[in-house]
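Sequence in, structure out.
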Amino acid sequence: MENLFLFFSMFFTIYLIGYFIVFRNWSPKIRPEAASCFISFAHGTPAVFLATSAILADSNRGFAAPNTEPENSVLDFSISYFTMDLFHYLAFCPGDLLFIGHHLATLFVFVTCRYLVSHGACAILALLVLAELTSACQNAWTLARARRDDVVLAAKLSRLLLVC
């Protein structure tokens, strides 16, 4: 459980840095969404590498295989991120039921795998890798869309990513 608190503190700090420093000149209306994207960037790419490494390090890759410590660490890392981002959505976007539901469902799967059954992390982490590979594009599109009306490059990037 100590990893959860450490990782959650890290994502909370990254969120605050994004909100108060990185995006301080952005409109208060879009700053929370930008800070959410900022922690998503901080989660997505490392999660891909950490999960891939944990999967490759485990010689017992069956669906029902017991979790290894590296797999549990990746699950804690992701549980912490999804919890922090869920708090963001509950505070700033309580009507966004799609993202709130997505975060709750993901947390249910990760927490069950990590703390209730302690098996199956290999399959869950393989799905995490696939999901997070698209996360950077989603975040870039979200940030570009948020600034498309006042930044020409953001408008072009928003249109380009919408086509992809």
